[in-house]
Backbone:
């Protein structure tokens, strides 16, 4: 056999061995190369992020349930939750107006999928429009046919169905609220969500701890709703966000490495009279192509920066665009990092020793 033939044979054998050793059929692990979602293990899907790696690889598609992994016996503010920014602004959302929608999107999954994959905070923009309450982007401070997504009741029905099917889960809604008096109360009532309502009377004052998650579940008070309109706390029993929460600057201003300042409506991040901390990390103009990079290492770095800015408090909510896109762990790993820090002082919730809150970490 000639040298050329030997080399060709070796090359062919190498290719065959590579093909034989490649994973498939649900056996591919995090960052293994893949050709379809079915190649990846549970909790992963096959995704291409040119900024982070070549080809397609298995990346995370779901959250770690901190309650099931460790416990749900601590105050609500001792846990962290993945939050979807503009959760309603979904690619391909069915058209509900007579003319085509001309506006940007921030997510790819319907609300049900977002919740099933572990999002527990939903940021929603609510407007009076077409005689009802709608989810909408604004143009000139108003909702229009070209910026409207759909009636709020459709989204809230999905949330009600999720809470009914998952009796130990808690969902937080953070509303940018442009709805007139009693409009929200009516649509939440129509959606059957009042039976899950967490009352303002049980929310802590002056930075105190929230009730235990286990008690919130036992009392079936599993829906927290915050509004941007101060008067609605007294008039409709909807919590005024800035009375209970601090939040960093959203958009490009919140993505400056090494800097974490509060958004205009929020008090200073180190204001410890507010016991919840929310970290935004998404650009001013949504960019699906770059979101896989945004939702990775830079996001984790910002959580550390904002921890220092918030008087050494780890965020309870981390809000992102296109939450499933990443270079590997993404926003799901960000939530795991926050829960590890909050619950046991470890860098990842999976490193927490069950039952320990003293910083005992496994390798």
Residues:
């Amino acid at each position: 056999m000639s040298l050329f033939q030997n080399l060709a044979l070796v090359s062919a054998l190498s290719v065959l061995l590579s093909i034989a050793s490649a994973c498939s059929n649900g056996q591919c692990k995090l960052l293994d190369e893949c050709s379809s979602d079915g190649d990846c293990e549970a909790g992963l899907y096959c995704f291409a992020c040119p900024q982070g790696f070549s080809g397609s690889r298995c990346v995370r598609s779901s959250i770690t349930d901190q309650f099931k992994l460790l416990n749900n016996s601590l105050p609500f503010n001792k846990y962290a939750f993945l939050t979807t920014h503009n959760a309603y602004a979904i690619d391909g959302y069915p058209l509900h107006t007579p003319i085509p929608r001309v506006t940007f999107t921030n997510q790819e999954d319907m609300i049900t999928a977002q919740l099933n994959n572990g999002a527990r905070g939903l940021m929603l923009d609510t407007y009076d429009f077409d005689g009802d309450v709608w989810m909408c982007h604004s143009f000139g401070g108003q909702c229009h046919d070209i910026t409207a997504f759909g009636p709020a009741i459709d989204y809230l029905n999905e949330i009600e169905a999720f809470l009914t099917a998952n009796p130990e889960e808690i969902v937080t809604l953070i509303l940018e609220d442009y709805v007139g008096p009693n409009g929200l109360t009516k649509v939440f009532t129509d959606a059957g969500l009042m039976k899950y309502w967490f009352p303002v009377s049980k929310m802590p004052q002056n930075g105190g701890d929230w009730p235990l998650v286990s008690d919130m579940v036992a009392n079936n008070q599993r829906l927290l709703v915050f509004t941007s309109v101060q008067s609605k706390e007294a008039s409709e029993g909807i919590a005024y966000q800035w009375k209970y929460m601090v939040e960093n600057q959203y958009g490009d201003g919140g993505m400056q490495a090494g800097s974490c300042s509060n958004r205009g409506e929020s008090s200073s991040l180190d204001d410890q009279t507010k016991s919840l901390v929310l970290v935004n990390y998404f650009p001013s103009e949504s960019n699906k192509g770059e979101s896989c990079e945004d939702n990775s290492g830079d996001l984790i770095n910002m959580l550390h920066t904002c921890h220092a800015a918030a008087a050494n408090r780890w965020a309870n909510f981390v809000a992102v665009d296109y939450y499933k896109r990443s270079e590997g762990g993404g926003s799901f790993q960000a939530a795991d990092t926050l829960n590890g820090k909050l619950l046991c002082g470890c860098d990842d919730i999976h490193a927490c020793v069950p039952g320990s809150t003293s910083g005992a970490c496994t390798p």
Notes: Residues 3-21 form the longest helix (19 residues). Confidence is low (pLDDT under 50) at residues 1-21. The CA atoms of residues 88 and 124 lie 6 Å apart.
